Description:
CATH superfamily of the largest domain: Bulb-type lectin domain
Structural class: mainly beta
Radius of gyration: 20 Å
Distance between the termini: 19 Å
Number of helices: 1
Amino acid sequence: xxxxxxxxxxxxxxxxxxxxxxxxxxASPAAAAPTDCRGPKSxxxxxIRPGQRLEPGARLADLASAAELVMxxxxxxxxxxxxxxxxxxxxxxxxxxxGNPGAYATQQEDGNFVIYKQGGSAQTGGGIWxxxxxxxxxxxxxxxxxxxxxxxxxxxxxxGPSWSTGSSERQAWICSDYATAAEAWWxxxxxxxxxxxxxxxxxxxxxxxxxxxGKAIxxxxxxGGAYRLNLxxxxxxxxxxxxxxxxxxxxxxxTGTAGNDAAYALLQDxxxxxxxxxxGGPGKGGGLWNTGTYNKI
Length: 297
């Protein structure tokens, strides 16, 4: 399939370098055989408090998960996964507000996170996008916009809803042992190794991008469909990695590695995504399935 299709959920994102830096970026972690299968990756909280702004060119960065939110000069608010220092950045989400040079983003006292045109404000108007997290209880509850674990989250007033990009970074492995395993990936989740990103895109395609230039080097071919997909290694599947329709049982894609209890999948530093037997791993063998991308980075 073509590059245009692979990037269907990431269209209109401009790779613009940010000028104003709130927090410096960090290098990407390396992947190894899993020692703990519990939970998604955590991060170091980076916040925008009520009254603060992201001016054109400014960015908010979460060091631990190597992600950043950029208010681009073209008016688009974009969430990126960071790669090698100074190298390509992978767009994960955007507000779709490009074409508004000079626009800025702000966390309001009412709990709403808003992008305004240049010269606009809560008093004068000019809002072009918002999270609809405004509340009805002034002075109560926590109001903040934060970036942690690869997701940008806006918390409104006590009585108001919250909003998220849904782009949480996950560990570089997926396990089938339910005593320690994390829950399934959902749409927007992503993981990284030293050389690649793996993203379950909002178009339902599971895609691997290399960090050197952002090129897609593998995909599951599952884009489209009426239901969102989850990536999982359920105990009932006994080591089979599957993409399953959310809240349903229909399987759209699988590795065909069932019959291997406690198998796990690992996103490796060499660019390969591999399903291993329980006691297998890099340097030990026991591979059951792989993307064949070890020579494409």
